[in-house]
Amino acid sequence: MTETQSDNFDAIIIGAGIAGLYQLYRLRELGMTVRVFEAGSDVGGTWYWNRYPGCRFDSESYSYGYSFSKELLEEWEWKEHFSGQPENLKYVQYVADKFDLRRDVQFESRVSACHYDEAAGRWTVTLENGDQATSRYLITAVGVLSVPVMPTIEGVDDFQGESFHTGQWPHDPVDFRGKRIGIIGTGATGVQAIAEIAKTVGHMTVFQRTPNYCAPLHNGEITPEEQAEIKASYDEIFAKCKTSHGAFVHNPVREKAVEVPPEEREAFYEKLYGERGFSIWMGNYRDIMVDEDANVTISEFIKKKIRERVKDPAVAEKLIPFDHGFGTRRLPLESGYYEVYNQENVELVDVRETPIERVTATGIKTSDKEYEFDYIVYATGFDAVLGAFNRIDFRGVGGISLKDKWVDGPRTFLGMQVEGFPNMFTLVGPHNAATFCNIPRCIEQNVEWVTDLFRHMQAEGLTSVAATKEAEDEWTEHVHETSERMLFTKVDSWFMGINPNLKGRDTRKFLLYAAGAPKYNEMCDEVAANGYKGLTLSA
Ligand code: NA7
């Protein structure tokens, strides 16, 4: 199974983020030759590209790191409960060094095409510079939110000051001290960036289209006592993640919001609001994400908190969500976000009231007025899940294009394989629990499942694996069915593949997996236990 020629590999992995690096580590153990192609100049993926101020984990740091190496867990010390981007990047670099992973990664190498040669049973991978390599197996580790999207606003290129998308942030820190900043976008990214930039900015104007429910992160430094406790309880931490819907350290309580007396419910919400991380989203009553009456109770609680924290009632009203319920879009976690709007030097512009007409040479013009800026920050999100696939020309059996195949929404088996694309694996791909997850936890599951499959194939002398049409139909149906009861499928967001800045992304195509990581893991294990049912394995 081992290829030796310089441009021919047993496996090619696209992406040297958390997923790509771990897959490389595991495939080496199988004795396979592997090449990783990475567009950036270093490892890190998300943590390499997203260098905007305020960028940090919303997962508890100690639940986020890799769990596969006891030595690594022992050595690495997280400094904060929710570690910031610079430290997170250092962590991934540390892992790459520790396991000597860089020698199989080719940096500054963006993949443009992957074509399957049926006769040879091999993939040919083409880079943007025209270089090619081939492999028997192709593994995509391209990320969920890795293709930044600029807003479709006229004049974006006319601005004479500097502007940045948060997902393509410059490597040298930007000094906002005393400057006039315009920022568009109030999703999870915008909320982090706004709170941080507000600490030093001269003047900031926030352009908000849809207000979101945000909850306090409650970050803090990890004390030496906490550090010792964390290190002693890694087994329990990861075991807990295994039982959680999104593989976090939070699990819903047994009670239902609609069955609890109002005073008790209020006290519970108050407690959750004081807890770290996604406790209020993932550790809440078990009906808040499926029952609209239950959801209203927590939505109203958060609205009350916004009104309490924002001094100007007119500004508070603008910040209150009006078109969706709590948690039905990705919950931004914040550190002093609402208080930013109490600062004299911060203005909130509701672009539904006064739409942005264009970006000008000096700033932004709305229907109401012209704003002048030194910097414009675009926190306008990503071409979620599908973007990273669509920008590569994947061609399977008979030259079929993946983009064409997925034009009416993704079709997959386990969110890991696609019928007509043999020997190709989509780590953290659409319909995979990893898309809606404390991501390294689900990445480890994905990688280990693929590695076990390869181990099985090696043992049996098999070299080809392909998902059957029936298996793909069944899985895709299961993904749709299990998402229907969730309230977030009734709301516009990137979960549903909706992005008003992208043409053709206005139809609802569920991109994630809603039945939860434990169910997903169980189903993957079942497939393996049944001799990889749903996959055709051959020599
Ligand atoms: P999101 O969650 O997609 O947020 C993008 C934000 O940008 C959101 O507030 C959008 O408003 C806003 N936006 C986008 N285009 C425009 C235009 N044209 N005009 C005004 N406002 C606009 O991306 P994030 O980067 O914040 O978060 C992505 C994920 O990263 C997050 O879920 C975490 O998992 C990590 P809209 O809501 O569309 O009205």
Describe this structure in words.
The chain is an alpha/beta fold and 539 residues long. It has 3 domains: 8-43 and 101-147 and 384-538, FAD/NAD(P)-binding domain (3-Layer(bba) Sandwich); 150-213 and 328-381, FAD/NAD(P)-binding domain (3-Layer(bba) Sandwich), CATH 3.50.50.60; 244-326, no CATH class. Helix content is 32%, strand content 16%. The chain contains 18 helices and 20 strands. The strands form 5 sheets. Strands 1, 2, 3, 4, 5, 6, 17 and 18 form an 8-stranded mixed sheet that branches. The protein is globular and about 70 Å long. It starts with 7 loop residues before the first strand and ends with a strand. Ligand NA7 binds next to α6.
What amount of the residues lies in strands?
15-25%
Structural class: alpha/beta
Number of domains: 3
Which CATH architecture of the largest domain would you pick? Answer: 3-Layer(bba) Sandwich
Shape: globular
Q: How does the SSE layout of this entry go?
A:
Elements: E1 8-14, H1 18-29, E2 34-37, H2 46-49, H3 61-64, H4 70-75, H5 85-98, E3 105-106, E4 111-117, E5 122-127, E6 132-140, E7 162-165, E8 180-184, H6 188-197, E9 203-208, E10 215-216, H7 224-232, H8 234-243, H9 262-273, H10 279-282, H11 292-309, H12 313-318, E11 333-334, H13 337-340, E12 346-350, E13 356-359, E14 363-366, E15 370-372, E16 375-378, H14 387-390, E17 393-395, H15 402-405, E18 424-426, H16 439-460, E19 464-467, H17 469-483, H18 517-529, E20 535-538
Parallel strand pairs: 1-2, 1-6, 2-3, 4-17, 6-18, 7-16, 8-9, 8-16, 9-12, 10-11
Antiparallel strand pairs: 4-5, 5-6, 13-14, 14-15, 19-20
The chain binds ligand NA7.
